[in-house]
């Protein structure tokens, strides 16, 4: 049985995904999208609002900080700023009154949806010359690929590091 080695292709695709991520996180691009959407919010604010908007339920500040891969106090300061602007609202967790849950306000939803609409429009324009089938296939395969890699890495995170035991 011959096993195909596609490691180089996957590494190249991973590098391309990283390039795309860097492009989407560039300050200039974010500033341009905000200007086109008619909003004033920095990248961190956009990230928080996007994460809270996308969440299937109200997030705690701890969950938000973990998703952003930042320390809790940093997330707390940013959240307070967005609450102050009326873009997020805090509610008390009914299961643990010490925990605040975050939800976007209607104004926050409208703002982040406007921002995302600009980005989505640019993405559509960038591949407008592609056949519809190619666009659909790329979207389907990239999503499947990232989901599978994420599941694999999540499983890997549960395993001990090589040369160590679980208790160390």
Automatic annotation (TrEMBL):
Annotated InterPro entries: ArsR-like_HTH, HTH_MarR-typ, MarR/SlyA-like, WH-like_DNA-bd_sf, WH_DNA-bd_sf
Provenance organism: Pseudonocardia adelaidensis
SUPFAM superfamilies reported in the protein's UniProt record: Winged helix' DNA-binding domain
Cleavable signal peptide: none
HTH marR-type domain sequence ranges: 10-147
PANTHER family (alphabetical): MARR-FAMILY TRANSCRIPTIONAL REGULATOR, TRANSCRIPTIONAL REGULATOR, MARR FAMILY
A Pfam family matched in the record: MarR_2
Protein name (record): MarR family transcriptional regulator
CDD domains (UniProt xref): HTH_ARSR (cd00090)
Source species, domain of life: Bacteria
């Amino acid at each position: 049985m011959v096993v195909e080695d596609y490691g180089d292709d996957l590494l190249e695709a991973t590098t391309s995904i990283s390039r795309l991520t860097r492009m989407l996180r560039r300050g200039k691009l974010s500033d341009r999208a905000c200007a086109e959407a008619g909003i004033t919010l920095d990248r961190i604010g956009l990230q928080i609002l996007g994460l809270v908007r996308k969440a299937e339920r109200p997030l705690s500040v701890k969950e938000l900080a973990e998703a952003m891969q930042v320390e809790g106090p940093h997330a707390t300061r940013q959240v307070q700023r967005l609450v102050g602007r009326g873009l997020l609202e805090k509610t008390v967790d009914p299961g643990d009154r010490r925990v605040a849950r975050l939800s976007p306000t209607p104004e926050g939803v409208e703002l982040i949806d406007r921002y995302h609409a600009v980005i989505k429009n640019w993405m559509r324009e960038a591949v407008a010359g592609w056949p519809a089938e190619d666009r659909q296939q790329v979207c389907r395969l990239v999503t499947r690929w990232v989901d599978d890699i994420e599941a694999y890495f999540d499983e890997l995170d549960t395993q001990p590091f090589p040369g160590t035991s679980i208790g160390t």
